[in-house]
Specification:
Strands 6-5-7-9-8 form a 5-stranded mixed sheet. Strands 1-2 form a two-stranded antiparallel sheet. The N terminus is likely disordered. The protein is built from 23 helices and 9 strands. It has a domain of 102 residues.
């Protein structure tokens, strides 16, 4: 394509990408407004506000601070009643984890306009997801061309799982952005090493370090990719100096990549300290060590923590966060009617198979078939497939089986790869292949439209709606997001109060729900006592799908008898309503 043609095409491309992003933002934002906050969001938002307002990193240290701080940033420009978040109250959080959830619940739902706060907190999260979409477009364009770029961007922006998690105040989408974008620039650096590519690679890696502890997986993945580049006959193109150079020898290439890794680690270390205010202590004027939350601390981890206290090599809150995360490395999980404390090796393969839209799965099968006979983009596709495969394998190995969100970072790599397949099918000029593209595209858009606004509870057509809670629960289906839908149903049916077994931390009374707390309703523990003693016993009981599975209510599931009953209503897929005849 000539320079003139490119210049004439650029405005149209920019407008088209912009329109797709606007559609994505509107769908994501409006669907999120139909939902109540998920279980973790209250604690995360309070933690982020604490980081920005007081430089107190003791609240919710289980993740590095970047994503939570970005979500809380708009609150600094709003009228916030933070009188309940006194230093004394924040001191208690490190000694009683449940108290932290209670404090967040009371601060948001009893002292402040929670809906307003969450609306503004979701905007930075949606913006980060939109930026990730732009990088999906850029990488697909660089490998396959503009047709693939638009196909990949469409797959990304209208995937129900991406839409579901984009507005949530959590680390999953922000980490996916940092992982994908940094790997994109790592790929560019190995193709053509410029100061810009080099700097963006290490900068985005540094941001991943302060986004999620999973960032530790990036360097080994890059090492594999770099090793393949070293043993390949392709030279490194150095464009960092006035005179371009090429490096062909293995030792020379090894030295260049080693320098890149050292730079990434060094800047990551600086970013880590900067995220915690270049201060070792978890809170200003702190007296004594930060206790953190380490109930299952291993002897090795204990020694490492003590060594860090003596040498202060890393911020106190960051080390405490690692200890906190390690204490939850094994937790109860549910899969197709089974419960395990050690997790399932086939959890993520099944979750991927039932939560990914069927048109994408079909396109993936076509892509695998085409990959066996087409070597045109073999080198570039390694940078898509190796991170995807290795990260997926690490997730399977970790056995952290609480949601598809833990492998959400593989989807951008997948969409770029599939974008190349769409281009190959369309450019084949064969009518039946183009028909396949059109049909799969329409099916995919329909899958997105039919899921609105219940994107978190999306399952593809292999799972009947009535069987979703029998397959997966927790953040795959029920994360406490449907209090608004429950209130709407109660209004429509003229139900004044209801028995409630709610898997979430939002306060039902904030949404006008009068309820009698049943086992598992955390909000009754976290907030002020309800007035259930003054309510007549309701003939209806609303049970969150997660509690219906009994995964967190062992040894005895008080709702097991409802498993064989047909609910009279299903609220957003996550709350099932039964008539309680007992």
């Amino acid at each position: 394509m000539t320079i003139a043609a490119r210049a004439g095409r650029s405005p149209l491309i920019v407008v088209s990408v912009g329109l797709l992003l606007v559609c994505f933002v509107l769908i994501t934002l409006t669907s999120s407004l139909e939902k109540s906050p998920t279980s973790d969001e209250s604690f995360h938002l309070m933690a982020g506000y604490s980081y920005l307002r007081w430089g107190d990193f003791r609240i919710n240290p289980e993740h590095p601070p970047l994503a939570k701080a970005l979500a809380a940033l708009p609150l600094l420009f709003l009228k916030v009643d933070d009188g309940s978040l006194t230093r004394k109250e924040r001191d208690l959080v490190q000694t009683d984890r449940i108290y932290g959830w209670r404090l967040a619940n009371q601060w948001l739902f009893l002292k402040n306009p929670a809906e307003t706060f969450f609306f503004y907190a979701k905007l930075p999260m949606i913006a980060l997801s939109a930026v990730l979409g732009i990088f999906v477009f850029l990488w697909a364009r660089d490998i396959y061309g503009y047709t693939a770029a638009f196909a990949a961007l469409t797959l990304y922006l209208f995937d129900p799982n991406i839409i579901a998690h984009s507005p949530i105040v959590h680390t999953d989408v922000p980490f996916a952005l940092m992982f994908f974008a940094s790997t994109y620039f790592y790929w560019r650096t190995l193709r053509k090493t410029t100061w810009f590519n080099w700097f963006m690679t290490i900068l985005l890696f540094s941001l991943s370090v302060i986004t999620k502890f999973t960032s530790v997986a990036i360097l080994p993945i890059w090492a594999v990719l770099g090793g393949l580049r070293i043993v390949s006959p392709m030279p490194l193109q150095l464009r960092m100096f006035s005179k371009p150079q090429t490096t062909s020898g293995r030792w020379a290439k090894t030295g260049s990549l080693t320098l890149l890794f050292v730079s990434a680690i060094a800047l990551g270390y600086v970013a880590l300290w900067s995220a915690y205010g270049f201060r070792y202590r978890a809170a200003p004027t702190q007296i004594g060590e930060f206790a953190g939350d380490r109930p299952n601390e291993s002897p090795l981890l204990t020694k490492l923590i003590q060594s860090n206290r003596n040498n202060q090599l890393f911020p106190e809150a960051w080390v405490s966060g690692i200890a906190h995360a390690s204490s939850f490395s094994e937790r109860a999980s549910y899969l197709v009617g089974e419960i395990s404390d050690q997790g399932f090796g086939y959890y993520f393969p099944i979750a991927f198979a039932v939560k990914t839209p069927l048109p994408i799965l079909i396109l993936l099968l076509i892509t695998l078939r085409m990959a066996l006979i087409n070597n045109k983009h073999r080198y570039d596709e390694r940078f898509l497939l190796i991170p995807l495969i290795l990260f997926f394998a690490l997730a399977v190995y970790s056995r952290m089986n609480i949601g598809l969100r833990h492998i959400l970072a593989i989807y951008p790599f997948l969409f770029v790869w599939l974008g190349g397949t769409v281009t190959a099918l369309w450019d084949s000029r064969r009518y039946w292949k183009q028909c396949v593209v059109v049909l799969l595209g329409l099916w995919f858009i329909w899958s997105c439209a039919r899921a609105y606004p219940d994107y978190l509870a999306f399952f593809n057509e292999t799972i009947a709606p009535r069987s979703r809670h029998e397959t997966l629960v927790d953040s795959n289906l029920d994360w406490g997001q449907d209090l608004k839908g429950l209130k709407k149903w109660m209004n429509e049916q003229g139900v004044a109060s209801i028995q409630l077994a709610y898997f979430g931390t939002a306060e039902p009374q904030y949404y006008g729900i009068q309820y009698m707390s049943k086992p598992g309703t955390f909000s009754a523990i976290l907030a002020q006592p309800t007035n259930s003693e003054n309510l007549a016993v309701s003939p209806y009981i609303a049970v969150s799908a997660t509690h219906l599975s009994g995964v967190y209510l062992r040894p005895r599931n008080p709702y097991a008898h409802f498993l064989n009953e047909e609910p009279i209503a299903n609220i957003g897929g996550s709350i099932l309503i039964f008539r309680d005849n007992r």
